[in-house]
Amino acid sequence: MEDSLLITRRPHASPTPPHARAALLEDPGFGKIFTDHMVTVRWVEGKGWHDAQVRAREPFQLDPAAAVLHYAQEIFEGLKAYRTRGNDVVLFRPRENARRFVASADRMAMPKLPEDLFVGAIEALVRVDADWIPTGEGSLYLRPFMIATEAFLGVRPAAEYTFCVIACPVGAYFKGGAKPVTVWVSDAYTRAAPGGTGAAKCGGNYAASLVAQAEAIRNGCDQVVFLDAAEHRYVEELGGMNVFFVFDDGTMVTPPLGGTILPGITRDAILTLARDEGLNVQERLYSFDEWQADAASGRLKEAFACGTAAVLAAIGEIRHVGGAFKIGGGQEGPVTTRLRDQLTGIQRCTAPDPHGWVHKIDMEA
Ligand SMILES: *Cc1c(COP(=O)(O)O)cnc(C)c1O
């Protein structure tokens, strides 16, 4: 049964010595340091998923004609493992990532990876590389992904794929505490069109966003905000984070999912936590004109971006071709702080978990 495919263990012959690992963990940054192992699973048409291994991390052997290198059949996920104060190792809603991975695969005409295999592969990697999980504010960032490996230049879905999971220890995303970010509203570029791949977590979306991100940096901003492709009117999301707006009357707004926005798991958790605490939460279209007017009138009190890597980041200033404006005097507001504290409390098991979001890994399995 491929659903419960056994993952063969082939431990690294000479893993990083403890003192060298400790030195790397002192200031890991984000996405620069990798653990000793990886998980790989292959898929071939007619045979399905097979050859699941947790093994030494090493470069792939890839034919130069591999379909991923030409037509970008690639999808990925991102989630974190945390070591709790009680010395457990936990994941946050990994089944949601597994489901989204299936949805992304579907959109990119790639094979569906069984959810149990997705979660099992992550657990296997976390178990073998558990010594790499930072304590304190850090976490182990997990990057599952799938690529088309078939050597073939014709244009059709590939007949061979590799699923892989790698891991990197990461520190606090914002060193020295969360600082409000400045965002650039792109006039020239859009991220996703109706009928396109906006709701799929695929590398191609990121490739297409980099020039807009570069434009944001040139304008002194940290991140780019995309407006809808059809009318250039409605706020959609950042390059890799969803966006929320908080008003003076207890209303909170986020753009609705509908094919052009990535359905963030952090977004979903924030919607639930905000409803729990009685905020009037609305998933509705919100135009850039409204954003400017609400900031000017003072009705808009806070705005923040959210995603797995940064969790919640307050948006302090907005810049665009026509000018600039601030929200909340450029400072982080109380709702943003409270929702971040609630979410990180659940993720790290320092707060109760009323929705059953925390997934404890059995480290002895
Ligand atoms: C991954 C991602 C997000 C955030 O999703 P989370 O599940 O909260 O990490 C938001 N937007 C884009 C474009 C993304 O790729």
TrEMBL record:
<keyword id="KW-0032">Aminotransferase</keyword>
<dbReference type="InterPro" id="IPR043132">
    <property type="entry name" value="BCAT-like_C"/>
</dbReference>
<dbReference type="GO" id="GO:0009099">
    <property type="term" value="P:L-valine biosynthetic process"/>
</dbReference>
<comment type="pathway">
    <text>Amino-acid biosynthesis; L-leucine biosynthesis; L-leucine from 3-methyl-2-oxobutanoate: step 4/4.</text>
</comment>
<dbReference type="InterPro" id="IPR033939">
    <property type="entry name" value="BCAT_family"/>
</dbReference>
<keyword id="KW-0663">Pyridoxal phosphate</keyword>
<dbReference type="InterPro" id="IPR036038">
    <property type="entry name" value="Aminotransferase-like"/>
</dbReference>
<dbReference type="GO" id="GO:0052654">
    <property type="term" value="F:L-leucine-2-oxoglutarate transaminase activity"/>
</dbReference>
<feature type="modified residue" description="N6-(pyridoxal phosphate)lysine">
    <location>
        <position position="201"/>
    </location>
</feature>
<dbReference type="InterPro" id="IPR001544">
    <property type="entry name" value="Aminotrans_IV"/>
</dbReference>
<keyword id="KW-0808">Transferase</keyword>
<keyword id="KW-0028">Amino-acid biosynthesis</keyword>
<dbReference type="GO" id="GO:0009097">
    <property type="term" value="P:isoleucine biosynthetic process"/>
</dbReference>
<dbReference type="InterPro" id="IPR018300">
    <property type="entry name" value="Aminotrans_IV_CS"/>
</dbReference>
<comment type="function">
    <text>Acts on leucine, isoleucine and valine.</text>
</comment>
<comment type="pathway">
    <text>Amino-acid biosynthesis; L-valine biosynthesis; L-valine from pyruvate: step 4/4.</text>
</comment>
<dbReference type="GO" id="GO:0052655">
    <property type="term" value="F:L-valine-2-oxoglutarate transaminase activity"/>
</dbReference>
<comment type="similarity">
    <text>Belongs to the class-IV pyridoxal-phosphate-dependent aminotransferase family.</text>
</comment>
<keyword id="KW-0100">Branched-chain amino acid biosynthesis</keyword>
<protein>
    <recommendedName>
        <fullName>Branched-chain-amino-acid aminotransferase</fullName>
        <ecNumber>2.6.1.42</ecNumber>
    </recommendedName>
</protein>
<dbReference type="GO" id="GO:0009098">
    <property type="term" value="P:L-leucine biosynthetic process"/>
</dbReference>
<dbReference type="InterPro" id="IPR043131">
    <property type="entry name" value="BCAT-like_N"/>
</dbReference>
<dbReference type="GO" id="GO:0052656">
    <property type="term" value="F:L-isoleucine-2-oxoglutarate transaminase activity"/>
</dbReference>
<dbReference type="InterPro" id="IPR005786">
    <property type="entry name" value="B_amino_transII"/>
</dbReference>
<dbReference type="Pfam" id="PF01063">
    <property type="entry name" value="Aminotran_4"/>
</dbReference>
